[in-house]
Amino acid sequence: MEDERVLIVACFLSLFLLVLGQDDIRQPPRISKPATPRQEFFLPNNANNDIFLNCSATGRPLPSYDWYYNAMPIQPQLGDITVDHTTGALTIRKPTTAIQGYFSCRARTTFPNGVSALSISHSVEVRAARLDNWQNKEPGEQIAAKEGEYVSIRCDDNRPQSIGPSLFKWFKNVDVEFQEVLDDERIFIDNTGTLHFTYAQTHDTQPGYACAVTNVLVGNIQTGRRHQLTVSAVSSVPEARPILQFSTETNGQAALTFKANDRGRLECVFSGYVNVPGDETPSVAWFDNANNPIVSGRGRYTIENSGRVLLIDSLREADDKLYTCQGSNTLGSTRATMQLNVTAAPIWVEPLQSTTVPQGQDAVFHCQARSAVGEVPPDPPRWRRNGISMNSGYDPNKYEFSEGRRVLTVKATRKNADIACFQCYVGNSVGDSYGEGCLNVILPIQIITRPAAKQSIDKKGDIVDLTVVATSDNLYPLAYTWYFNNVTYDSLHAPPHVIYDVNTNLAYINTSDLTDQQMRDIRGVYRRQVYHEFETVFVDMEVDLLDDPLVVAASAGTFDFWIVGLVLGLLLLLLVLLIVLFIVVRRKRQEGHYPVDKNETKAGLDPKTEMENSGFDALTRAPYDYPENSRSRTALDIDDLPREMEGDNESFGSSEYGDEASAFNEDGSFIGVYSSPERKPPVENNVHPTGESVV
Ligand SMILES: *[C@@H]1O[C@H](CO)[C@@H](O)[C@H](O)[C@H]1NC(C)=O
Ligand SMILES: *[C@@H]1O[C@H](CO)[C@@H](O)[C@H](O)[C@H]1NC(C)=O
Ligand SMILES: *[C@@H]1O[C@H](CO)[C@@H](O)[C@H](O)[C@H]1NC(C)=O
Ligand SMILES: *[C@@H]1O[C@H](CO)[C@@H](O)[C@H](O)[C@H]1NC(C)=O
């Protein structure tokens, strides 16, 4: 019978789950590309320089894509621009300077009920690469130096503007033979374009030194004025100790300021000369603020150009410290220190993050940013929901801002209405930081099959039902775990004696074949944990045995039949006693208090003196304590009796029982029935049932 019931339940559950399986799965869009703001350069009016921008996002149902230009829909007159709304690809054919600006991708997921969620990417800045002409070239300078001296030639101030990746270069003999001046141990071009000679040599004498600006993308070079350098020979080149001639520090504060995540560049140029072949120029070493040597290639550090350049990758605020360069040769060494300054658009303290909540719960979004140390704090965050400003016109009961608009709480979320993406912009003097977090609302975990919280077994063959079945949003499959008496079982295993099907979650204990010990072992609290990443539900089921009658029944089989008879007899006796007790208790309930004294006093008698006279005080007053206790005793009796029988059934003679039964009081109450045979009725030894002597 029970088999069938369980099976029917299982079938019903499977069917139910199948139906639920068709419930729609919703997931807001999430753009994975472009993942960071970036710049893209193009050559305008160049047939081979079309711009391709990709966008990809996840989401269920699959999102559709669009691209915006400077935060507005793209207008047809902007240029030959196509957007593939399915793949997210943006193509700009033959781009002109008109399309320069910020492009951002938008991925929209539309749910079956028509509600949609919109994710907005970081923007891609599109710029036309360009190198202007070098205007009004006046005659260059005449520079004279002696052999062994430090010489530098500055790049002209009116250098042309270059947009896109650019470099300074130097050329000599420009009119005769186009020859590049290359960096080496002795020669260096710094970040401002100045050409340095650590020590001059006579062959440096040239009529046409020209600074050049090159644009890698444009593939063009613009050269400046021609400078004349004349190096005169000396009879003996004097040796010189290192002297700092240029550093990022001497070049001014601005040269030391970098944006976070950019590559920091610090430079030091020392003059100096010693007449040691191969070691003429000073060596350069770098140290951090703790005076530890900086090793090229270790951490984010790279040292280049014969030690003159220290590069620090992806700068952070912690890099905002003192750096020291040291130029050394055999004559001595010189140090220069500089303080790197890392500035940043607002730095996330708690960036906006996507969150998933079970329906009905609140969702909290944080958009907390700060400025770099020592800089002006950022403005309050500006929020958008699905790209629409939340400055006004939103429901304040639904969307609650706190902590200076740095925290947004979406109240009592609903799957049908609240799946959305929130955009947050925080700006300071350096720039804007943009973050996005999407809210997904899922159906909560619901327990659809829950057995009785408390199950008592009264006979072998009983089935303990432990089947717990739950449903939740199909986006997150449920996992189940068993706990029993503080032991955790992994997802595939169940506590002892539990018949468990991991696929249907059907779980029960068939007590038919359990031994007595096993019957006792299955008592306890079975806890089912039903959970996924975002929610956990516990179901507790307590199993106990109804007073161990099973144990009695079980042991009966091993005893002779007379014991069965005895047990039955005793049970019968117990029943009689219970009935008697019941009557007594009932009577007392009706009368309110122990009746003897009251009734007799009412009748004009003094029970105490009467007792004294008859010498029966010890006996009759003794039971005074019993009526109060008797009710609780009756409750315990059922437990007490079989236990006594179990261990003591031989000596528990019916004749003794008869004797005991004779100890009824005049009012029908009884004493000593359950006391051990050793304890004699108080009437014989004048001992109060508590053990105290009354006489
Ligand atoms: C319980 O076990 C007994 C004996 O093995 C078997 O006859 C009975 O069908 C089982 N009941 C269930 C519900 O499995
Ligand atoms: C854009 O996607 C296309 C197709 O997946 C791929 O061929 C191309 O390399 C991608 N372009 C960029 C810039 O990632
Ligand atoms: C760092 O640079 C920023 C921006 O130029 C400036 O405001 C700030 O004062 C500089 N900090 C230091 C310590 O130089
Ligand atoms: C189970 O663990 C809890 C907490 O660790 C403890 O309070 C309780 O006594 C334990 N129960 C058993 C049966 O060990």
Walk me through the structure.
It holds the Pfam family I-set. Residues 29-121, 145-232, 238-343, 346-440 form the Ig-like domain. This is Ig-like domain-containing protein. One of its GO terms (biological process) is cell-cell adhesion. The strands form 15 sheets. Strands 2, 5, 6, 9, 10 and 11 form a six-stranded mixed β-sheet that branches. With 695 residues, this protein is α+β, with helices and mostly antiparallel strands. The relative contact order is 0.07. It has six domains: 2-20 and 444-545, Immunoglobulins (Immunoglobulin-like), CATH 2.60.40; 34-128, Immunoglobulin-like (Sandwich), CATH 2.60.40; 134-235, Immunoglobulins (Immunoglobulin-like), CATH 2.60.40.10; 239-343, Sandwich (Immunoglobulin-like), CATH 2.60.40.10; 347-427, Immunoglobulins (Immunoglobulin-like), CATH 2.60.40; 620-695, no CATH class. It contains ten helices and 50 strands. It is elongated, with a radius of gyration of 47 Å. The structure holds 2-acetamido-2-deoxy-beta-D-glucopyranose (NAG) (4 copies).
Structural class: alpha+beta
Look at the structure and give the CATH class of the largest domain. Answer: Mainly Beta
Per CATH, the architecture of the largest domain is: Sandwich
The gyration radius over C-alpha positions equals 47 Å
Give a quick account of the main beta sheet: strands, pairing sense, barrel closure.
Answer: 6 strands, mixed
The amount of helix comes to: 10-25%
| Name given to the CATH homologous superfamily of the largest domain | Immunoglobulins
Q: What does the overall shape look like?
A: elongated
Number of helices: 10
Mean pLDDT across all residues, rounded? 80
State the low-pLDDT regions, or none: 13-22, 550-566, 591-695
Bound molecules: 2-acetamido-2-deoxy-beta-D-glucopyranose
Strand content: 35-45%
Give the N-terminus to C-terminus distance in angstroms: 66 Å
CATH topology category name of the largest domain: Immunoglobulin-like
